[in-house]
Amino acid sequence: MRAIQFDRFGGPEVLGVVEAPEPVPGPGQLLIQVEAAGVNFADTHQTDGSYLAADQLPYIPGSEVVGRTHDGRRVLAKVRGGYAELAVAQETAVFDIPEDMPAAHALALVMQGVTAWHLLRRAARLSAGESVLVHSAAGGVGSLAVQLAREFGAGRVLAMASTRQKREFALKLGADAAVSYPLDEPVDVILDGTGGPLFDQALDSLADFGRIVTYGSASRTSFTPLDDARMRSLNAAVVGFWLRPTLARPGAFTEPLRELLEMTSQGRLHPVAGPEYALADAGRAHRDLLDRRTSGKLTLLP
Predict the structure, then answer these.
(1) What's phi and psi for 222, nearest 5 deg?
(2) Measuring CA to CA, which residue among 269, 262, 274 is closest to residue 300?
(3) I want to staple 132 with a disulfide (CB 3.0 to 4.6 A). Which of 5, 140, 149, 288 is the partner?
């Protein structure tokens, strides 16, 4: 089968097409013919060595696919090695989806959707009526967080994005306003997947007992050092979130994903489809993602 693989760490240029052995499902697993594979920011960290050790090379990235099982079911699945024509998934990580649900919409729910769900429900512990500011509001996580914040009872949802087009897009998703720092008034919850200078500005923009949830470092720069005196003066909290260990908790994946799929089927949640790429163009997809030239869910089509 054709697959995307890297045998050394680096940038998008290390991703190449190979002929790989077809995966063989074991007990409790299903073989899936891949219709589309999702591209995540975490994939770029795997590629540059942030998430993997050298003894795990060579490696086929990709953690989510839409495809067909041997009996013709159209499914959404959490996998390993999804950048390929075939992938294997645990039966417990396979979900039937409607024939008319776009693959990109379903794929957006696996990592980005579940992340946004946990950011608001578990990490920020959003209460009804609180204000929420979403950084990178047109991105994969951000575009869903804007919508879920409203669904979960936020009183006011603010969006921040890098371009006018992305800010307008966030408003169409349901944000009350597109803003930039300094804010006119402090907010209760800030979701930050960027880090760097933006994180520092966010800290000074929290309301009393506000929470900033940090879940990534897309800026590729270090966070501002924190000291206890500053945190006391802010009367606020910094909450770290990483999806990988969260998914080890019972129900932390299946329960949010079922709710997200139901909300999408009911038209209450609108995942955003981004660009589609041929499988061989995985490197270009990574480059576009790193350069922030995209909005919505990126997909590879084998």
Answers:
(1) -70, 155
(2) 274
(3) 149
Instruction: Give the number of other CB atoms < 10 A from CB of residue 228.
Output: 7
E runs forming strands in the chain? 2-5, 16-19, 29-39, 64-68, 74-78, 86-90, 94-96, 131-134, 156-159, 177-178, 187-192, 206-214, 237-240, 273-278, 297-301
**SS3 letters across 128-142:** CCCEEEECCCCCHHH
218 Cβ neighbours under 8 A, 6+ residues apart: 41, 136, 193, 194, 195, 292
Q: What is the dihedral of CA 187, 121, 172, 258, to 10 degrees?
A: 180
Domain ranges of the chain: 2-100+272-301, 112-245
Q: Is 169 helix (H, G, I), strand (E, B) or coil?
A: helix
Q: How far apart are CA 107 and CA 63, in angstroms?
A: 10
pLDDT at 234 over 80: no
Q: Distance between CA 144 and CA 130 in Å, rounded?
A: 18
Amino acid at 281: D
State what percent of residues in the chain have pLDDT above 70. 97
Q: Residue 295: its pLDDT value, please?
A: 77
CATH number of 112-245: 3.40.50.720
| 36 has pLDDT over 60 | yes
Q: How far apart are CA 147 and CA 155, in angstroms?
A: 12
Which of 189, 216, 174, 255 is closest to 43 using CA atoms? 216
Q: What is the CATH number of domain 2-100+272-301?
A: 3.90.180.10
pLDDT digit string (tens) for 38-90?
Answer: 999 889 999 999 989 899 999 999 999 999 999 999 999 999 999 999 999 99
* pLDDT class of 223 with cuts at 50, 70, 90: low
- Is the peptide bond preceding residue 23 cis, with omega within 30 degrees of 0? no
In this model, does residue 220 exceed pLDDT 60?
no
